Amino acid sequence: MPVLPFSHILHHPTKDQVILAYGEHIQVVDTKTGVIVSSTADLEEREAGGLQVQPLTNTPDVEKQNKARVQQIAISNDGAFLATAADDKVMKIWNTESWKCLGTRTLVRRSNALQFTNDGSHVVTADKFGDIYNMERDIPDVVEPVKAEKTTEKTDGEGEGEGEGEDEDEGEQPILGHVSMATDLELTKDNKYIITADRDEHIRVSQFPKGHNIETYCLGHTGFVTEVRVLPGASNQYLISGAGDATVRVWEFLKGKEVQTFNVREALGLSPLDSESEEDELTVYSLAISESKNHIAVVIEKESKVLILQWDPATAKVEVFKILEVQGHALAADYDRSGKLWVSSVIEEGTTGLLSVYDEEYNLQEDLAKYANTFGSKTVDSLPDLYSTEELRKRTTDWRDLKKAREEKEAARRANDPDAAPTKKRRTNKNSRKIPEPAPAASTADATMQE
Amino acid sequence: MENTPVQKRPAEAAAEESTGVVRLPQKKFFRQRAHSNIFSDHHLDYPVSPDRMDWSKNYPKHFVPKDPEAAAASSLTQDSGKKIEFADIGCGYGGLLVALATVYPETLMLGMEIRVKVEEYVNQKILALRNNHPGSYDNVSILRMNAMKFLPNFFEKHQLSKLFFLFPDPHFKKRKHKARIITSTLLAEYAYVLRPGGIIYTISDVKDLHLWMVKHLDAHPLFVRIPDEELVDDPAVEHVRNATEEGQKVERNKGDKYLACYRRVTDEE
Ligand SMILES: C[S@@+](CC[C@H](N)C(=O)[O-])C[C@H]1O[C@@H](n2cnc3c(N)ncnc32)[C@H](O)[C@@H]1O
């Protein structure tokens, strides 16, 4: 039976630690020894091979633990606070010394990105409906009851979380919004600007926190944007972005100017697409940056190869530095503060390779991964689709109905075949990705009409 | 963009042939249900960025096609140098555009409409008008587009001087308010495409929607209300009130019309 992969890896900015998330849990690993020092879960003993569970230095608050899957994590610049957001829309703030949960709060909608402001006083979140909120960190220690799913009015195009009597002018107001799913956000180093990305290929640069002043757009991607990060360098004027169009792009972001288009398929030595017109589904899933080495680790959806790019701030170009081959499919990555790269993978069987650690020269450090691989995470019946990019791909439907459709399909599949492995999401027919052109005869009854 | 005219009845076609005058399209053949789900992925053609937009299909007298072969066949040797300055968002059957085309003959203006059939109608109407009045109406066009999502793909920062939101869909239900075309978050995008000094025109027969638009525009730091007295000199205003199909319907039904216009101020620092 498979073991849940580590969905997120995040380095501690001031300590030799990385934080791993899997399922509903978070776990802290000492990056010098590989030992798990804190965990919200009871460590599972699998084939330990003589390895001993090391005592935890503190026991996190598990009282408020629920079963919701962690979907976003962020840490404040001083490392004192960790924020997590889960698929029940609950955001939690943790003290990273005691690992006590300091507060919880129900977000308006599911979060797709979280980041602390420089002073750590606020947490900025980008949500599923495209709204960006700048919220005070010191949030009331209450969990509002999660709104019951509405069962009666689900197909009218307005998805989750919008109660009938709800007045959108009450309560927390977004500082900006996209009419599309927001996929990522990044505050510039000086916190003067916020860069937000969406499913409709847009990257927007706005003033922060006065987000109604839009500076510019960085337009060039031809697929949903998955990640935006400011690149290291004295000028702080360059941004790197990854997307569902098989490219990584470098931007002079305040000018909205693209300075480099980097083709990931080519760089990986993968075979080119059959036809020119075919859209590339190769998806840049996430980016990790080493400020000390100017390296960028590019995680590609459902790929075993992790691309390491060298960033040169002087010429404003990235180029291939190295290609790593991990077990299974790489899912998350981050550099710790000494420059070691931590990569997690989706592994169908066993636990080796769940976590891979590379030293500064990209040599595999098995000793550092063994504790997490042996005791971290937990065995599950089947693996969920952790990439969740399906709802980002374009279809002629309301994007908010896709998740529901997927869940229903999954439920139906399980009902028919309880032992079934999760469905493979990648379609073999690449042409199916295109949005079907409405047939001329059908234009009288446009398939997208709702009411 | 479909430029193919609908099937004509033989008598009609014969009449056109002898006079050279194209009959204007009839609305009844272009009806479509009132609402599109603005959150759906319609089949929409939009450029990656404004500089990659080929406007030659919309304004053949102002833009040389981007495709070299088509450019060779074009009667133009270079662009007129004009950029679109007015955008009518949710233009419906295009009455405003047709009226303003001759009031501002030097200004390029574009209607954006999400409903396919309605876009087809307006497109044919413009083609017929160009045919029947050579030299006029070359400055107006329409695109089928979801204007709530893709304005920055078409217009550069501060490109527009006027944005029109005339009799927009009211989306009465509270939980549908997010679908309204004026929201506090969308106003940032409208401010981006409008130049400082540019004007947003809104009008509605639905008082509740009017108050909603006023509330959000008033609250927005980049827009200030233009007092009604100042509007009397604005030649666009009478057409805002009366030129559109919706405006005329309200007129026939003796309904109220609530106008609110706002000037875009300079960016905050
Ligand atoms: C009530 S009609 C008014 C039409 C016209 N302005 C008039 O005054 O006659 C509103 C129009 O906005 C269009 N519309 C609504 N949302 C839109 C969007 N996001 N982008 C473009 N058009 C939209 C509708 O299809 C409809 O034709």
From TrEMBL, chain A:
It is found in: Nucleus. Residues 158-172 have a biased composition (Acidic residues). Residues 423-433 have a biased composition (Basic residues). One of its GO terms (biological process) is tRNA (guanine-N7)-methylation. Keywords: Nucleus, Repeat, tRNA processing, WD repeat. Pathway: tRNA modification; N(7)-methylguanine-tRNA biosynthesis. Residues 144-173, 403-451 are annotated as: Disordered. Coiled coil: none annotated. Residues 144-157, 403-417 have a biased composition (Basic and acidic residues). WD repeats lie at residues 63-104, 218-261. It comes from the Eukaryota. InterPro entries: Trm82 (IPR028884), WD40/YVTN_repeat-like_dom_sf (IPR015943), WD40_repeat_CS (IPR019775), WD40_repeat_dom_sf (IPR036322), WD40_rpt (IPR001680). Pfam families: WD40. Gene3D superfamilies: YVTN repeat-like/Quinoprotein amine dehydrogenase. GO terms for cellular component: cytosol; nucleus; tRNA methyltransferase complex. Required for the formation of N(7)-methylguanine at position 46 (m7G46) in tRNA. In the complex, it is required to stabilize and induce conformational changes of the catalytic subunit. Belongs to the WD repeat TRM82 family. This is tRNA (Guanine-N(7)-)-methyltransferase subunit TRM82. The lineage of its organism: Eukaryota, Fungi, Fungi incertae sedis, Mucoromycota, Mortierellomycotina.
From TrEMBL, chain B:
Keywords: Methyltransferase, Nucleus, RNA-binding, S-adenosyl-L-methionine, Transferase, tRNA processing, tRNA-binding. Coiled coil: none annotated. It is found in: Nucleus. S-adenosyl-L-methionine binds at residues 90, 113-114, 146-147, 166, 244-246. The keyword S-adenosyl-L-methionine applies. The active site is at 169. Its main location: nucleus. GO terms for cellular component: nucleus; tRNA (m7G46) methyltransferase complex. CDD domains: AdoMet_MTases. GO terms for molecular function: tRNA (guanine(46)-N7)-methyltransferase activity; tRNA binding. Pathway: tRNA modification; N(7)-methylguanine-tRNA biosynthesis. It comes from the Eukaryota. It holds the Pfam family Methyltransf_4. It catalyses: guanosine(46) in tRNA + S-adenosyl-L-methionine = N(7)-methylguanosine(46) in tRNA + S-adenosyl-L-homocysteine. Its EC number is 2.1.1.33. SUPFAM superfamilies: S-adenosyl-L-methionine-dependent methyltransferases. Catalyzes the formation of N(7)-methylguanine at position 46 (m7G46) in tRNA. Forms a complex with TRM82. NCBIfam families: tRNA (guanosine(46)-N7)-methyltransferase TrmB. Belongs to the class I-like SAM-binding methyltransferase superfamily. TrmB family. This is tRNA (guanine-N(7)-)-methyltransferase.
